[in-house]
Amino acid sequence: MPSLPSLGGLRGRVPRRATPAPIPVPLSAYVVDCAVYVDGERLPGRWTHTAAVEEVRRREAGFVWIGLHEPDAEQIEGVAETFGLHELAVEDAVHAHQRPKLERYDNTLFMVLKTVRYVAHESPDTANEIVETGELMVFLGQDFVVTVRHGNHSGLSLVRRQLECDQERLRMGPSAVLWAISDHVVDNYLDVTEHIEQDIDETETRVFAPRSTVSAEQIYLLKREVLELRRAVQPLATPLRKLADGDTPLVPAEVRSYFRDVDDHLTTVSERVGSFDELLTTLVDATLAKITLQQNTDMRKITAWAAIISVPTMVAGIYGMNFENMPELHWKYGYPLAIGVILGICLVLYRIFRKNQWL
């Protein structure tokens, strides 16, 4: 008969718990919307990505637009297989943290855009964050558009509704969707720059106020937020020019003119952001100069008062040495005379410092 283990051997051991298996999340949890568009109109009904692409290819007309929000690698795998997306582009779409760019993989375009949102606050002096950024990836093919969003402020429901009300542009195909998304993102850039311009104007007014309470650290914070906006805006210029100049076969000629308009708007935003950076640098220099000037003014006042106070200190120090033979030591009016001399010299010094604007 086998012996049982002793209780002493089991004492102090913690029983192991089995690691629970991750609960699979269906793809529908990440799908914001999936629609089929034929001849500029949205077909009724709810579609899965497989049924939608099968319908389009059966008709040999129209395209599919599916929107995803922060999917993981497992969930986007089925979409990538259905639409034939390149694995490198899929990896970038899942992990995000990409610079704005435009890449071509066989018959598919992959575009990354940075989305921005202005964070409302009471004052730019007390705000910890002014610009919030997100990312938007777009896969463009002959008969499909796949959008992948990262961030809660980069919704495309408004863009979809506006396009569905404009059948002429929807008839242009998937490239019209890419244009509408780019235009929407750049328009948000314009709105954010207008709000930041107001913050900079307010900061500038406070910097040059008689009693300024703006510190250089606060201006550096605003400058950092402008730099974050700059990182989203400037790299987008090259992809938009490629789309506008006809270097991409998936963008027809009638859509390229729309991308030129978006590129013009982006140029306006870039110029504004550049001017913001220069102005904030000037404000930092002005703030540091005011601090230096204030320190010099305070030092002059301290030096002037120290000179005035040194007169009674010197006289008191001399007469406090208690030598027997000192001038006017036993004279009846010696003490009032010493006080008068001290006050007279202090008054003369005060008027001199006051005239020289040291006091």
TrEMBL record:
GO terms for molecular function: cobalt ion binding; cobalt ion transmembrane transporter activity; magnesium ion binding; magnesium ion transmembrane transporter activity. It catalyses: Mg(2+)(in) = Mg(2+)(out). It is a multi-pass membrane protein. The chain crosses the membrane at residues 302-321, 333-353. Signal peptide: none annotated. GO terms for cellular component: plasma membrane. Keywords: Cell membrane, Ion transport, Magnesium, Membrane, Transmembrane, Transmembrane helix, Transport. It is found in: Cell membrane; Membrane. InterPro entries: CorA_cytoplasmic_dom (IPR045861), CorA_TM1_TM2 (IPR045863), Mg/Co-transport_prot_CorA (IPR004488), MgTranspt_CorA/ZnTranspt_ZntB (IPR002523). CDD domains: MtCorA-like (cd12830). The keyword Iron does not apply. The keyword Mitochondrion does not apply. It holds the Pfam family CorA. It comes from the Bacteria. NCBIfam families: corA. Mediates influx of magnesium ions. Alternates between open and closed states. Activated by low cytoplasmic Mg(2+) levels. Inactive when cytoplasmic Mg(2+) levels are high. Belongs to the CorA metal ion transporter (MIT) (TC 1.A.35) family. This is Magnesium transport protein CorA. The lineage of its organism: Bacteria, Bacillati, Actinomycetota, Actinomycetes, Pseudonocardiales.
